[in-house]
Every structure is written in C-alpha cells, then in structure tokens.
Amino acid sequence: MSKSTELFNRAQSIIPGGVNSPVRAFNGVGGGPLFIQKAQDAYIYDVDDKQYIDYVGSWGPMILGHNHPAIKKAVIDAAENGLSFGAPTEIEIIMAEKVQQLVPSMEQVRMVSSGTEATMSAIRLARGYTNRDKILKFEGCYHGHADSLLVKAGSGALTLGQPSSPGIPADFAKHTLTADFNDLASVKALFEAYPDDISCIIVEPVAGNMNCIPPAEGFLQGLREICDKYGALLILDEVMTGFRVALGGAQAHYNIKPDLTTLGKVIGGGMPVGAFGGSHKVMQHIAPTGPVYQAGTLSGNPIAMHAGLAALTALDTPEYAQLAIKTKQLAEGLKKVAEETGVPLAVNYAGGMFGFFFTDQPQVTNFKQVCACDVEKFKKFFHLMLEEGIYLAPSAYEAGFLSLAHTEQDISNTLIAAKKAFSQL
Ligand code: PMP
C-alpha cells in the first residue's frame, strides 16, 4: 500500500472525507489523493517520493513556482519578529500600496485571510452602500463558500454535484439571482425584473471554477454598462485571475474598471491572504470609517504581508511576460497532440491559466457547453497523466495553472505524456 493511501485511510477517520477542502479528496476523478511531502519550483513530491510536474500550483498562488527563495526568506525574516500582533504594522501599508500600484482601481484596500472573506465582505459592502439586498452571480462561477454565494456555484460544489448547498436558508438564497456567463441578455432580463433591488454583479472575469472560460468580446463591458444604468456595483472577483491573467489582473487585460475587486490566495504567495478594495467613495463605507462592519483578528498578518509583498515584487519584472507565453505553448501544444492522436479536444487559455475539454464542440464558451463535455474521459486522462508524473487539477471543472518556474523541458515532457495518454483513451 502506498504511503498516500495509508495516510488517506488514517485521515478519513479523523477529518471529514480525509481532507480540509473537498476537491482535494479526488472525488472528481476517483481514487485517493496524493499526500504531499514538499514542493520546489514547478514540482511537487508526494510522500512516496514521486516527483510530479505541477499544474495546480496550490490552486493558483504559485505563479513564481513553489518555495520561491525571496518569499521563503521574507517569511523566515518576518517570523524573527513575532507571528501576529493584532495591531497595525508598516508592512500592511507597503503591501496595500503595492496592490494599489498594480491594480489602480483599488484606491483603498482592506486585507482579509481568504478569498471567501474577500467576496463575502465585498458583497456586504455593496449591499450596505446601495441599500439593496439582491446580488447577481453567474451559474458555474465560484466565489467562496459564504451563504449568499453558494448558489449554483462552480468548483468543488459543481464537482460534487451540489451547486447549491443545504444549510443555506431559502430566505438568504432568494436574494441571489443567477444569470448565464457570457450571456448579457440573461443579465438584462434580471435587471428589468428587479431594477431597484440588485446591489451588485459579482463575476469571475475569466471563469476558472467551471474549467476555464474567458469572457466573450464585450461581455465584461456590457456588465459595466448595465451596472451603471441601474446603479449597481460591479465586483470583479480576481481571486484566481489577479496577477495571473495579467499583472494588473483581468481588469487590465480586458480594460474594464470595476467598483470593487476581490483578491485571494495569489497575493499571499502561499500564505492565507485575501483582500478587497475599490474607490475611496465606496471603501469609506467600511468600518471603522463607515457603518458596514467587517473585521479579522489575523487580517494583515505580518508574516502573510511580508510573503505577499515578496511575491508581488518578484512578479513585477519583465520576466512576467513569460507566464502567458508558456501557457500558450502548453495549451496550443495540447491541442496539437490531441489532433495528432484523433482525440476531439477544445482548449481555452488566458494569461497564466488554461483549460481543456473532451468534446466535439470546437469552442466551449458557456456553462451548458462545459456540462456537455465528457467527464469520464477526463477522469481517465487525469489518471494516465498522474502515472506519467503530471499533476493536473483533480476535477474536470477546474482551471489549470502554469508558473514562471515551468521550463520548456517541463512543457515538452508534459506534451509527450499527454500524447501517450490521449492515445490510450
Ligand atoms: N473566488 C474565486 C474566483 C475562487 O477561485 C476562490 C477559490 N478557488 C474563492 C473566491 C474562494 O477563495 P478561498 O478558497 O481562499 O476562500
């Protein structure tokens, strides 16, 4: 029995499902998860000492690759001074200034400790600011597990076939309206039905929790116009896309200015961090300046701030452009080897994220099309790739991530493995 299997058996008796976050359990692909020993650069190593080329990157943050020396040093140095104070520190200002420099629409920034906290807080602020109860989200988009947002959600909720969770009172869920991603008409219809009730639209600018779906031309601009027309706020949830689709996030890539932005895992460089921010005018409504309450004992934690600042500083170099180049190389390469082996495959990518779909459809641009793809084929492919030492996200509904540490050789080895796997499907 492998050590991973041994640990998984042991874990299941003390941790629900053996994991502290659902998709990790490999429910989406079958079999037990790998237990990880360590990670370095583009590679993770399991407890059985096998090395894998990693396209999960801790679900996004490892844009620089694992265990980047500057981040490791920042964490160790910061730890010398103590782990948490619950009082202001200068590093929080420097970090907020760095985020603001890279994402200028975030004129003011509030740090939190996860993506869920960021989106939950941004939604409360939008509701408090507009004095309206309803929110609009898109089917298949995931914004963390806060009550209002776990309605027709993507990611693990979709993988487990429970897009709307029990435990959320119908009285809460009724305030969450859902529209179809890349379909402006479905958004307009909801605003026409509730012209004075919708506080905000929250959207992943590139949907990454139902595989990877870039926005159709004009979709994000259309959302901006609808929000302006009806006095609602536009929240871009850049927990996944921030610093990944472009250094300035998807908002820079697609040239769209949101009222609020949410950020997550990426800005911690691997530490638990999130943030939300927007114009002074809106952010002034947050406590202690304004009446909308939001707080966190460990928010702005000094270790996390130092790690995050080191990560953002290391990303902010000309080498960053390589991320999109490498991603394109892998995505186009996958398409090519699929063609060569006669496997119908659609591929999407944006900046440093990508997705592939086993389907005859030439392009996958919406949730319905995602659901029509061949998940069984994905499961088989996933395990064949794992055997070849390639670690993909263990679900057909998650985006893949590259890092700057992935080498040409890594990409080429991945394509060789993929060709072999495709031919065995
Ligand atoms: N928003 C998006 C777009 C996400 O992808 C995620 C997590 N994958 C979240 C919010 C929630 O972040 P966290 O898991 O840190 O709570």
From TrEMBL:
<comment type="pathway">
    <text>Porphyrin-containing compound metabolism; protoporphyrin-IX biosynthesis; 5-aminolevulinate from L-glutamyl-tRNA(Glu): step 2/2.</text>
</comment>
<comment type="similarity">
    <text>Belongs to the class-III pyridoxal-phosphate-dependent aminotransferase family. HemL subfamily.</text>
</comment>
<dbReference type="InterPro" id="IPR015422">
    <property type="entry name" value="PyrdxlP-dep_Trfase_small"/>
</dbReference>
<keyword id="KW-0627">Porphyrin biosynthesis</keyword>
<dbReference type="Pfam" id="PF00202">
    <property type="entry name" value="Aminotran_3"/>
</dbReference>
<dbReference type="InterPro" id="IPR015424">
    <property type="entry name" value="PyrdxlP-dep_Trfase"/>
</dbReference>
<dbReference type="InterPro" id="IPR005814">
    <property type="entry name" value="Aminotrans_3"/>
</dbReference>
<keyword id="KW-0663">Pyridoxal phosphate</keyword>
<dbReference type="InterPro" id="IPR015421">
    <property type="entry name" value="PyrdxlP-dep_Trfase_major"/>
</dbReference>
<keyword id="KW-0963">Cytoplasm</keyword>
<dbReference type="InterPro" id="IPR004639">
    <property type="entry name" value="4pyrrol_synth_GluAld_NH2Trfase"/>
</dbReference>
<dbReference type="GO" id="GO:0042286">
    <property type="term" value="F:glutamate-1-semialdehyde 2,1-aminomutase activity"/>
</dbReference>
<keyword id="KW-0413">Isomerase</keyword>
<comment type="subunit">
    <text>Homodimer.</text>
</comment>
<protein>
    <recommendedName>
        <fullName>Glutamate-1-semialdehyde 2,1-aminomutase</fullName>
        <ecNumber>5.4.3.8</ecNumber>
    </recommendedName>
</protein>
<dbReference type="InterPro" id="IPR049704">
    <property type="entry name" value="Aminotrans_3_PPA_site"/>
</dbReference>
<feature type="modified residue" description="N6-(pyridoxal phosphate)lysine">
    <location>
        <position position="265"/>
    </location>
</feature>
